[in-house]
Amino acid sequence: MEEPKRTIAYLCPKCRQSVAVERTVFQLAAAPSRLPCPCGGSALLVEMEADHADLTVPCLYCGEDHHIRCSAHAFLHEKALAFSCKANGLDCCYVGEEGPVFRALRRLEEAAAQYGEKPGEEGESAFLNEAVMTEVVGELKDIAARGGISCTCGSKHYQVKVRYSAVELICAECGAKLRIPAATDDDLEELCCRYTLRIGGKEEH
Questions:
Q1: What three-state secondary structure class fits 198?
Q2: Residue 24 to residue 5: CA distance in whole angstroms
Q3: Over residues 157-182, mean pLDDT
Q4: In what order do the strands lie in the sheet with 65-71?
Q5: C-alpha span between 130 and 115 (Å, rounded)
Q6: How far apart are CA 42 and CA 139, in angstroms?
Q7: Neighbouring residues of 152: CB distance < 8 A, sequence distance ≥ 6
Q8: Rounded CA separation 85/31 (Å)
Q9: pLDDT digits (tens, 9 = 90+) for 53-66
Q10: pTM for the full model?
Q11: Which of 14, 21, 78, 117 has the fewest CB atoms in 10 Å of its CB?
């Protein structure tokens, strides 16, 4: 049997190019992994522990390294994980299966191109792409109007927070969050294909 593999991707803050590296689960578990950009200007670090994974991710947008911790099970088995910059909400790293990660990376490249040439500057607009954000908010209102937004904890009560490049749905009962990207035409198209949205909260027992 072929050993399970994970694809890890980010945008290099030095050369602004995509960096995508494949590692086997064994390689990730055996020793810390350093995943450098070919330009030599940055590197993503991964350290696996028994119950969690620690990532140090260079960020194109704020110029700082993000220190991220997630469960080992999610890191090694989820179809796709997205980690975002705390400064503006744009994705800075993906982990998962090759197909979903590369699709997300293409959308990220488009968003980064819109972001501009100077990392960390949001410009005059309140949103990365005001037209897309307006359409996304409209779609969310339509989904909500038909009762299509709920949480896996059973609640249908939630709060909405509009960020620079995404909208967050936050469950009022358990605090779980669902992040809806709102930066590119692909983000809008993907949302338009959704009839319902499920916030990933705690399962009912």
A1: strand
A2: 4
A3: 86
A4: 33-36, 43-48, 52-58, 65-71
A5: 12
A6: 38
A7: 176, 198, 199, 200, 201, 202, 203, 204
A8: 26
A9: 999 999 988 889 99
A10: 0.66
A11: 117
